[in-house]
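Readers of this paper often ask what the protein records in our data store actually look like. Below, we set out a record of this kind in full and without editing:
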Amino acid sequence: MIEYLPQALSSLSAALNIGKSLVNINDMAKRQEALIQFNNVIIDAQSKIMASQSEKTALTAKIDELEKECMRLKNWEAERKKYARKEISTGVFAYVENDFVGNLQNAHKYCCNCFDSFKKSTLQQSDDHKPNRGRFIVLICPAGCPRLEFHDYLN
């Protein structure tokens, strides 16, 4: 952005010099040629200024985007502190509210993979039955993470 300003100032300085010389030119052909040159220099200065403004706009948008992301991460950190990774069955983990008391089956549970990636995906519970395994509980992440299968919740 700043590199365009000296170029624009240089073009405007050249336009000023051309403008001053126009006063002393009596030959119409030379005067017309000087006017064309004057216009070209002004157009060049305008294009440099517009390029600078365009770059400033893009940088401002990027700054706004980064500030929003920073705020989202700060809010996420505050929200994240309300939950802890807990073993809900042998070798099976999910994020559960820190102050949850009661049967883990009734707890609101978040997927560990998603939670660690700054997303909250509520695990959906269902039951399944397979002849060789019997009845088991399945927790499914709506984001497509691997299913969590186990027989019973820890008490």
Remarks:
- The radius of gyration is 34 Å.
- Strands lie at 83-89, 92-97, 124-130, 134-140, 148-150.
